[in-house]
Amino acid sequence: MLVKGYNAGVITPGIHGSTYSSNRITMIVDNIVLSITLKKGFLNHIEEVSKYLKEKLLLLIEEFPEIISKIRGEWGRLIYRNRTLNFFIMIKLSAVS
Fold it and tell me: In the β-sheet with 68-72, what is the strand arrangement from edge to edge?
């Protein structure tokens, strides 16, 4: 792993063995991801947001058919004049009960 600046002081030799092996960083991140995704209502919230996003993206196709030809995937990938645009959704975790 090559790092510089602030990260060079934080990620010391031995802390990150491999991207696909167990190490302290991946275990911490795994625990955080699981604690968030296992919260009551989180996955239902994701499903609701996904449906809402898809509805709005379909409206964009109707409004701009000369620019947007289709939507692919479940996470908001638009085809724009033969180029793929990816949309990333920030989910406000405080809204999840």
Answer: 68-72, 77-80, 83-86
